Request: fold
Amino acid sequence: MAAQQLEIDDATLFDNLDDRQLEFDGQVDGEAYQFAVQYSVIEALGGSQPDGDAEESFRRYRDPIAQAALAALANGPDRPIIVISENNLDREDQA
Reply:
């Protein structure tokens, strides 16, 4: 069985400053999902909180964020938005 892959729709990236997360749509095995990666995940990966550059940071850490998104999805795909937190990161991904 092949490992799941997340196809991220870059056109849907939205920096939600109020909730301190970057939101995006993606597909896994043909199913559409909405995701939100918390700023704390980007900080764990890059060493600093996004300061107006969340989309740029997202692109820099796209692969570990995609893996964390799959881990978050495995915890409950029935939620309207899949929130990616630091708990979803592999230890080796963290700075």
Observations:
- The first helix runs from residue 39 to 46.
- The first strand starts at residue 6 and ends at 16.
- The helical segments are 39-46, 54-60, 62-74.
